Hints:
This protein has 147 residues and is α+β, with helices and mostly antiparallel strands. It is 23% helix and 36% strand.
Amino acid sequence: MSRGTPPPEGGAAHVLEVRVYYEDTDAAGIVYHASYLRFAERARTELLRARGFDHRALAEEHNLVFAVARSTIDFVAPARLDDLLAVRTRVVRIGGVRLELEQLVCRAQAVIARLQVTLALLERSTLRPKRMPQALQQGFAAAGTPA
Length: 147
């Protein structure tokens, strides 16, 4: 496991509900595998927003952007057209430059996909790794508790 500190234990993950639309499915009406990446991205954006930050301000005011450094998905069961899904995002580890997340896509409390995502914080102008500001680290450390 990478270096860094784990967030506090015991809190609930951030949850984003997502409805499956026709555009999210393949010809068989099953959610296309790449759609899970979009669902997870939306959930990460809303987690950031719930913690008082947003991508635009990080980029424009602080010259910072997040990039996905690694992502793995384990598919457990298929989702289908019109399903209501919940994407549960939990911070696993906060490093100086990296942020590790677990994202569970659930239907009616049953996990249907499991994502492990590592984000890297980069300086927008150079795309070089940049240490995470303390306020951002603290915001993510609180991600295990309700906003």
